[in-house]
Specification:
Structural class: alpha/beta
Organism: Mucilaginibacter rigui
Largest sheet: 7 strands, mixed
Shape: elongated
Catalytic activity: tRNA(Val) + L-valine + ATP = L-valyl-tRNA(Val) + AMP + diphosphate
Radius of gyration: 37 Å
Enzyme class: ligase
Strand content: 15-25%
Protein name: Valine--tRNA ligase
Distance between the termini: 63 Å
Helix content: 40-55%
Keywords: Aminoacyl-tRNA synthetase, ATP-binding, Coiled coil, Cytoplasm, Ligase, Nucleotide-binding, Protein biosynthesis
RNA sequence: GGGAGUUUAGCUCAGCUGGUUCAGAGCAUCUGCCUUACAAGCAGAGGGUCACUGGUUCGAACCCAGUAACUCCCA
């Protein structure tokens, strides 16, 4: 079989992904093994795969594949969340295209359209994940509005309500007048906007004078409940206890005192409008001011405004400015910039609005959830997020859990005709509850609350509800898989999602939902801008996969992804990834081209033992990297093991010299078998990062015949073997020797093909006979002679404490050689000086640990030995 | 305004609770090679006052204080 010159990933990807699926390698069911569980952060059904998903899911897949290869029962649960606001917006848009207005539909009709939309588009992102190689147990795919999942949400609501932790109340919310729902703080984008500051005069009651306030929202003056001044403001002491008239409508409002008012902003007089500003609302509560709401749900003025009724807020602003001007109440206007919130979904300017909402009390839930993180039961990686988490959990406000939408779990609260309500799982149960209030009620007299629950309220249950642990808290699955092991997510949802899962976990099961939370950074472009659709600076992940292969993209993502820090993504990393795949492919080609010749005596024992040691050293490092979730370091360790140790050194050491006229290069059986076995182990170590290439090679006949289920994906990772540290250290010197010979050639403009003789004056205990074949092969050395004295007139170098001499057929440049040696001598003298200074320092000798002093002594001895060699050489040069 | 974080080579990052010849890696750059696995390659080389200023210490990239720049979160 001839092998292609370069690796082409596409065919391998399709072939092996379906092979894995066919043979159920992703499937997990509880058994006797130790479980290893990850629940996916459910992507939004409206979403398509972006670079953030790529990163996040690559990490999860690496973790899950590694766990599988360590013999754990690995279970990765996939799914999506219903994303109330985003999805409802998409559905409304779809209906609009079809000429249907949401207002004309009943709730049931709308929901059937929404489900239609979800069935059509909601699974796209999961299909895309398959291209990446994600080894999720697809049979477990969940959606937050699946029947059982929704029922769990309702159960949880009822549970919390019974505990008295859910209540209804009027609150200032972020109102999106376009979609006519409250949105959460995280769905509001703040932008700097150029505005005008209007200075408006209010007549003081009983006097022929006025005060002036400054506001950006003159259209809200009709909702004013007071004017507030700072009691320490000496300009206004005469106004204490007075009242003023609102211009145009002449309503009388009091002047109140509060230190909240900044004296040097505007005029120092603040109009207080409790219904239309959060800070004013709080001030109003404090001073028991009336609340006058002059806006409708669509942000037009209502009859309480008395004037401009029915006008949109922005039009009203322009008109009222004119009216004020005409009335002589407008002192002046000024340009002013301030932050305005816009709805993430509709881009409408957010209106602070008082409305009746459902809330969940947070302090009781937050306190234990904080403890899990502080006492280390739940580990945040990196740890720096603990502070952020604590800060938030200690200052948490009650959570607005209602949304004025239809797509989601409808709040299970039922109103009686008299306005009272009961909370129950079903309408029937609600009726039973209602009968305690009024025994004569019929089921038709109950009406369910219109609102649905915040999506986070359901995703907060995710690690429990995917195993049906809310409805059936003692089922076999939840008992086996929960708590899960690792969660991989973005820091920006640490509070909204992670914290709420910990709360729910504690509340429902009295345990954490996961042990480790690995927080990834934001994927930015190389200019540091967040990748986004609107900027158009994000590559399409599927295009990247087509271009570089899934393995290449996976490696590329991880090469630039330190935990918890943002990553500056550049396609070049993917290029490096696919280059790596190609390197492995070619190494494979080399080994594949060998043929065993039994007549050749084994001669690579040293190389084999050395690489086995290096391999084990790498395994130790990789284990420790994974234990600390340093995935990109573990990858780099693997990368260097394969590229440097295996390809650049080991294969070069053992590869048969070119044999003329022989199509297949001949090699001894011992070397061949050892190399094939190394290669197989390398495939295993690489598999979590590069699943497709490794699986493809795994099945090559080079490794013998495989049974149907003998796949790399389920192979067990190699065990850490013996490490011959002395051998590793000595080969390091040998590598220096080889490099120096190459360097000598290079600096003397000699061709690499030119074989050279080498002599060694060994001062160390290294037995160069052992390494002679390696030095000859890698350094292109004709002979290695052992000498007792320096060879004059030859180029020399030092490796370790041993001296080497290369006799060239050309005159050596004495001046350059002397310069080089003198430079080295000066460095060594300086170095010795600093070491001796330490050793001569009484306080160092008294304070430093013994091993450190020992080290300094060794440094001194080594340096002295080298210095002696350098000085001898210098003398030789002079003579 | 409050809180958190970052600052090490041209770029992206390590540097694991001060002490190896400690200032590192990968990429990029430069030089030389189309050497029968790989030019997506091979062999070499050059890059850094560890943001700045002080302090603690026998010893600081690392600990402390302050300054500056940038980023994120909350208001």
């Amino acid at each position: 079989m001839s092998i292609a010159k370069t690796y082409s990933p596409t065919a391998a990807e399709e072939k092996w992904y379906s092979y894995w699926l066919q043979h159920n390698f992703f499937r997990s069911v509880p058994d006797h093994r130790e479980p290893y569980t990850i629940v996916i952060p459910p992507p939004n059904v409206t979403g398509v795969l972006h670079m953030g998903h790529m990163l996040n899911n690559t990490i999860q897949d690496v973790l899950i594949r590694r766990a599988r290869m360590k013999g754990k029962n690995a279970c990765w649960v996939p799914g999506t969340d219903h994303a109330s606001i985003a999805t409802e917006a998409k559905v409304v848009a779809m209906l609009k295209e079809r000429g249907i207005n949401k207002k004309d539909l009943t709730r049931e009709e709308f929901l059937s359209y929404a489900w239609e939309w979800k069935e059509k588009y909601g699974g796209i992102i999961l299909e895309q994940l398959k291209k990446l190689g994600a080894s999720c147990d697809w049979e477990r795919t969940k959606f937050t509005m699946d029947e059982g999942m929704s029922e769990s949400v309702i159960d949880y609501f009822v549970h919390l309500h019974k505990k008295g932790w859910i209540y209804r109340g009027v609150r200032m919310v972020n109102w999106d007048p376009q979609s006519k729902t409250a949105v959460s703080d995280e769905e509001v984008n703040r932008k700097e906007v150029n505005q005008k500051l209007y200075y408006i005069n209010y007549k003081v009651a009983g006097e022929n004078s006025h005060l002036t306030i400054a506001t950006t929202r003159p259209e809200t003056i009709m909702a004013d409940a007071a004017i507030c001044i700072n009691p320490n403001d000496e300009r206004y002491t005469h106004l204490h206890g007075k009242s003023v008239f609102i211009p145009l409508i002449n309503r009388e409002i009091p002047v109140i005192l509060d230190e909240y008012v900044t004296m040097d902003f505007g005029t120092g007089c603040l109009k207080v409008t409790p219904a239309h500003d959060l800070n004013d609302y709080e001030l109003g509560q404090k001073h028991k001011l009336p609340i006058i709401d002059i806006l409708n749900d669509d942000a037009t003025l209502n009859e309480k405004a008395q004037i401009l009724v029915g006008e949109d807020r922005f039009i009203a602003r322009k008109k009222i400015a004119v009216l004020l001007e005409e009335a002589g109440a407008l002192e002046k206007t000024e340009d002013y910039t301030s932050q305005i919130g816009y709805s993430e979904r509709t881009n409408a300017a957010i209106e602070p609005k008082l409305s009746m909402q459902w809330f969940c009390k947070m302090p009781e839930l937050a306190k234990p959830a904080l403890a899990y993180v502080l006492n280390g039961d739940v580990k945040l990686i990196p740890e720096k997020f603990i502070n952020t988490y604590r800060h938030w959990m200690e200052n948490v406000r009650d959570w607005n859990i209602s949304r004025q939408l239809w797509w989601g779990q409808q709040i299970p609260a039922y109103y009686l005709p008299n306005g009272e309500f009961v909370v129950a799982k079903t309408k029937e149960e609600a009726l039973a509850e209602a009968h305690k209030i009024d025994a004569s009620l019929t089921i038709d007299q109950l009406t369910q609350d219109e609102d649905v629950l915040d999506t986070w309220f359901s995703s907060g249950l995710w690690p429990i509800s995917v195993f049906d642990g809310v409805r059936n808290p003692d089922n076999a699955e939840i008992n086996y898989y929960y708590p899960t092991n690792d969660l991989v997510t973005a820091p920006e949802i640490l509070f909204f999602w992670v914290a709420r899962m910990i709360m729910a976990g504690h509340e429902l099961r009295e345990t954490k939902p996961f042990t480790n939370v690995y927080l990834t950074g934001i994927v930015r472009d190389k200019l540091g801008r967040k990748m986004s659709k609107s900027l158009g600076n994000s590559p399409d992940p599927l295009d990247l996969i087509a271009k570089y292969g899934a393995d290449g993209v996976r490696v590329g993502m991880l090469l630039c992804s330190p935990a918890g820090n943002d990553l500056m993504f550049d396609e070049k990393y993917c290029e490096q990834g696919s280059g790596f795949a190609n390197k492995i492919w070619n190494a494979f080609k080399l080994v594949k081209g060998w043929e065993i010749d039994e007549s050749i005596a084994p001669k690579n024992g040293v190389a084999i033992e050395w690489f086995a040691s290096r391999f084990s050293q790498a395994l130790v490092e990789i284990d420790s990297d994974f234990a600390q979730y340093r995935l990109s370091e573990a990858l780099m360790t693997t990368y260097k093991l394969v590229w440097d140790d295996f390809c650049a050194w080991y294969l070069e050491m053992v590869k048969p010299a070119y044999q003329q006229g022989v199509e297949k290069q001949k090699i001894d059986a011992e070397t061949f078998n050892a190399t094939v076995s190394f290669f197989e182990d390398i495939l295993k170590v690489l598999h979590p990062y590069m699943p497709f290439l490794t699986e493809e090679l795994w099945h090559d006949e080079l490794f013998g015949t495989r049974t149907e289920l003998d796949c790399c994906i389920v192979a067990q990772l190699p065990a850490i073997g013996k490490i011959n540290t002395q051998l590793v250290a000595e080969i390091e010197i040998v590598q220096q020797v080889v490099t120096q010979i190459r360097n000598t050639r290079n600096s003397n403009q000699l061709s690499p093909k030119e074989a050279l003789p080498l002599a060694v004056k060994a001062n160390s205990t290294i037995d160069y006979n052992l390494y002679e074949p390696i030095i000859k092969q890698l350094g292109n050395v004709t002979e290695l002679t052992k000498v007792n004295d320096a060879i004059t007139g030859a180029n020399s170098f030092i490796a370790g404490t041993d001296e080497f001499f290369v006799s060239l057929n050309i005159e050596i440049d004495v001046i350059a050689e002397r310069e080089r040696l003198e430079k080295e001598r000066d460095y060594l003298i300086g170095f010795l000086k600093s070491v001796n200074a330490k050793l001569g320092n009484e306080r160092f000798m008294a304070n430093a640990k013994p091993e450190i002093i020992e080290n300094e002594l060794k440094k001194k001895a080594d340096a002295e030995a080298r210095l002696k060699i350098v000085e001898d050489n210098l003398r030789g040069l002079a003579g």
